[in-house]
Amino acid sequence: MSTDLATLRKLAHLARLEFDENKEQQMLGDLNKILDWVDQLRQLDTSNVEPLVHLSHEINVLRPDEAHNTVSHQDGLRNAPRKDSDYFRVPKVLE
């Protein structure tokens, strides 16, 4: 399987790429190598290969993700540079 220069130029236009003539020929060669490699993969017999569901057989050893407050409201406001009763004060961003 290979492609021609017109197809490469159309793909480059769709991808908003620009090549000079040297790079265009190099890109065409590289694209044809990739397409040949994909064609070789397509010819492999994978009828007896199980689908890959997970990359490894490792079990998640992390703790369960449970929401809970670790910092109280007062402790959070204690380190605020500016506060107004129960709220953080921040500089005005929009006019």
UniProtKB/TrEMBL annotation:
The record, for InterPro entries, names: Asp/Glu-ADT_sf_sub_c, GatC
> Which Gene3D superfamilies does the entry mention?
Glu-tRNAGln amidotransferase C subunit, N-terminal domain
Assigned EC number:
6.3.5.-
One of the entry's Gene Ontology molecular-function terms is:
transferase activity
Enzyme class of the recorded protein, top EC level: ligase
**Superkingdom, taxonomy of origin:** Bacteria
- Per the record's keyword annotation, is Transferase included, yes or no? yes
Q: Which reaction does it catalyse?
A: L-aspartyl-tRNA(Asn) + L-glutamine + ATP + H2O = L-asparaginyl-tRNA(Asn) + L-glutamate + ADP + phosphate + 2 H(+); L-glutamyl-tRNA(Gln) + L-glutamine + ATP + H2O = L-glutaminyl-tRNA(Gln) + L-glutamate + ADP + phosphate + H(+)
Signal sequence range: none
Q: Tell me the GO BP annotations in alphabetical order.
A: glutaminyl-tRNAGln biosynthesis via transamidation; regulation of translational fidelity; translation
Q: Which UniProt keywords apply?
A: ATP-binding, Ligase, Nucleotide-binding, Protein biosynthesis, Transferase
Q: Which family does it belong to?
A: Belongs to the GatC family.
Subunit structure as annotated in this protein's UniProt entry = Heterotrimer of A, B and C subunits.
| The protein's role, per its UniProt record | Allows the formation of correctly charged Asn-tRNA(Asn) or Gln-tRNA(Gln) through the transamidation of misacylated Asp-tRNA(Asn) or Glu-tRNA(Gln) in organisms which lack either or both of asparaginyl-tRNA or glutaminyl-tRNA synthetases. The reaction takes place in the presence of glutamine and ATP through an activated phospho-Asp-tRNA(Asn) or phospho-Glu-tRNA(Gln).
Which protein is depicted?
Aspartyl/glutamyl-tRNA(Asn/Gln) amidotransferase subunit C
Q: Which organism is it from?
A: Hymenobacter wooponensis
